[in-house]
Amino acid sequence: MDPLLKLLRTNASLKPADLATMLGVPEDEVRSKIKRYEDDQIILAYRAVLNEEPLGLNTVRAVIEVKITPERGGGFDRLAERIAKYSEVHSCYLMSGGYDLLVVVEGGNLREVASFVSEKLATVQGVLSTATHFMLKPYKEQGVLMKRESNEERLAVTP
Fold this sequence. Notes:
This protein has 2 domains: 37 residues, no CATH class; 78 residues, Alpha-Beta Plaits, CATH 3.30.70.920. The protein has 5 helices and 6 strands; from the N terminus they run αααβαββαβββ. Strand 2 and strand 3 form a beta hairpin. The model has no long low-confidence stretch (mean pLDDT 92).
């Protein structure tokens, strides 16, 4: 993988000047490579990983195992792409094993997620079954620990 992409994958907020210094190349070269990667849809988006707890956000997330019937001529792709277009769907993956798709959904509350599964996802032609698992608490998100380790050391209390 291109070292520029490795750096951006680790920290997408790095400025082109900083990236150029780290890579030992001219800043213009970094800018043009980033532009080319964006145009070629290699870089699709830039996102911040948020710790929602201190913000008071109560997003409900679930992972859903979905069994589907592959379509003639389209396999799993057409149905997976149709499911991925729902606004509630955060991620959608083709899987090996006991189910075909792993769908990650988000909603404002439990009812929204349940309604999505029962009224939208389960009613899609070709969906055979779903199994929903609610995420209770994140410990690590996209490679980032949700709580930073404290370096404070407490003294042992002895009687």
